[in-house]
Amino acid sequence: MTGLQIIFLIVTGVTLFSAIMVVSVRKMIHAVLWLVQTLLGVAILFITLQASFFAVVQILVFIGAISILILFSVMLASRVIQDSSPQVVKKWWLPALVATLLLGLLVNFLALWPGFETTLVELPEGSDNIAELGHVLISPEGYIIPFELASILLLAALIGAIYIAIDRKEPQSS
Amino acid sequence: MIPLSWYLIASAALFCIGLFGVMVRKNAITIFMSIELMLNAVNINLIAFWHYHSQMQSGPHVTGLVFVAIVIVVAASEVAVGLALIISAYRRRKTIIIDDLTLLKG
User: Fold this and answer.
1) How many domains does chain B have?
2) Does any CB of chain B come closer than 8 Å to the CB of residue A153?
3) C-alpha distance from A148 to closest chain B C-alpha (Å)
4) Is B85 within the bounds of a domain?
């Protein structure tokens, strides 16, 4: 058991515990804070996989933008959320059973794959090559079409979000 | 170093927790957070396999990282549109509890 493995186990334990708290706590503000801790744990997992660029992107995009956006929505809608009423459906044990069964199935199927027990060794210097990633993203031999599609998707999401959320001052029907 | 199987099991567990949250919560915004958990599980899986592939091919390979970038873009746009929808529904119906939004029930 090396030091890195111990770090991995601790980080994964904290991450999974925070994820369980996200789906089970009653107050939504607390759920958002647990979500931030989960995302931070995932970023540390990225660092142990030597993808340091995406660890930074994870912190910037998921914690800095998405969590804050969710926090704003919680605050905007917080007047109608009665934290005292039950937050989960009555038959909560049925989804729990389904999720546990799915986890067992996934692990069993993955264990059939011969590369399952591969030990990840440390990559040589410069494998997390950001300059190479940038070249590949904009070169016609690389991934320029998915890159442009992602840009169009972001633009469409921007316009769509503004169009949906705008207040048109229509007479209330109900 | 760490076996690949540990990452795969951790990401499967995170995905199943997110799936449980989507099925069990009543609140639209909390369901959103559970979807974020599932997307993060997918990202752990993709980066673990990127590491595995780079190790097997012993050279710089960035294809897996492109996949992760696309997933992050999709997650960001999904949150923007979804939260706009929730705010719009809240403004009209004064609720974000999924059981009360039964306009399409027929």
Assistant:
1) 1
2) yes
3) 11
4) yes
Question: What was the pLDDT predicted at B12?
Answer: 95
Amino acid identity of residue A121, one-letter, is V
- Chain B residues in contact with A22 (beta carbon < 8 A): 17, 21, 30, 33-34, 37
pLDDT at B98: 82
User: pTM score, two decimals?
Assistant: 0.89
Give the model confidence (pLDDT) of A5-44 as tens digits: 999 999 999 999 999 999 988 888 899 999 999 999 999 9
Q: Which residues of B touch A23 (CB under 8 A)?
A: 17-18, 20-21, 24-25, 30, 33-34, 37
DSSP A13-60: HHHHHHHHHHHH-S-HHHHHHHHHHHHHHHHHHHHHTT-HHHHHHIII
In A, minimum Cα distance to B27 occurs at A87
The whole domain housing B93 covers 26-98
* pLDDT tops 90 at residue A152: yes
Residue B2 belongs to some domain of the structure: no
Contact B56, A45 (CB under 8 A): no
Contact check, Cβ <8 Å, A16/B10: yes
What's CA B57's distance to the chain center, in Å?
Answer: 29
**B14 falls within a domain:** no
Q: Do A46 and B72 touch (CB under 8 A)?
A: no
